[in-house]
Design goal:
Layout (H helix, E strand, L loop, with lengths): L5 H11 L11 E2 L13 H13 L9 E2 L11 E6 L7 H12 L3 E6 L4 H11 L6 E2 L29 E6 L5 E7 L18 H20 L1
Parallel strand pairs: 1-2, 3-4, 4-7
Antiparallel strand pairs: 5-6, 6-7
């Protein structure tokens, strides 16, 4: 999908897939363990309002949550996970998340600092036979709407390492988990002034990457 294919993308989303406005949403995952799953209250509404403006479609701009063990999670093509620190799931929750991903859902995890060791442990529990794979810069996610020739952009730097996007794929080669590390894409969706150090350029990069992520979840 190229940069100027507004009409093609819109038709595909809302005719071929027949998605309702309530389904074009990004629920966040309310998890246990003590991490602040709820942080960044303006992130999702801002991203979805930009998506609505660009594609002239109805979307659900609410900031709301689903739980890992719920049936409601299956209503959405993408679920967002973020926070600082520990994250943990029960076996029931792990099984439900696995089923969600195996049935076409995309779990998008953005480490807001301190989550890495815990989410890696949980992902291994959820997908014991799968590995996190670094996504190359030519992966479709980085070109579906906006072009990111170097791959995932860096909005905030938390570690002395380059930013990286990882994926977990199902047996058919479909991306079912996206994990962004040392990038903090979602912080760049927050309203101006929430993170005073963020330049307008970086906030725009974050929003554009967010649009790519949402489009990928809807189209694939």
């Amino acid at each position: 999908m190229g940069h100027n294919n507004h009409i093609l993308i819109t038709l595909f989303l809302f005719l071929a897939l027949n998605l309702s406005a309530d389904q074009v949403a990004i629920p966040r995952l309310k998890y246990s363990g003590g991490g602040d799953w709820y942080n960044g209250k303006t992130e999702i509404p801002n991203l979805l309002m930009r998506f609505k403006k660009e594609f002239k479609v109805d979307v659900n701009t609410r900031d709301f949550f689903v739980t890992p063990d719920s049936k409601e999670i299956f209503n959405y093509p993408i679920v967002f996970v973020t926070g600082h620190g520990k994250i943990s799931f029960s076996n029931i929750e792990r099984n439900n998340l696995r089923k969600y991903c195996e049935n076409g859902g995309l779990l998008y995890i953005d480490d807001d600092y301190g989550m890495d060791e815990y989410i890696r442990y949980e992902l291994k529990k959820i997908f014991p036979s799968k590995e996190l794979i670094a996504l190359s810069s030519d992966f479709e996610l980085f070109h579906i709407r906006y072009k990111f020739k170097k791959g995932i952009p860096q909005i905030h730097t938390h570690y002395e390492k380059p930013p990286i996007a990882y994926g977990i794929f199902d047996d058919d080669g479909n991306l079912i988990v996206l994990y962004t590390y040392n990038t903090n894409i979602s912080d760049g969706w927050d309203s101006k002034g929430v993170h005073p150090e963020d330049s307008n350029e970086n906030r725009e990069l974050a929003i554009k990457m967010g649009i790519n992520i949402l489009l990928y979840a809807l189209l694939y």
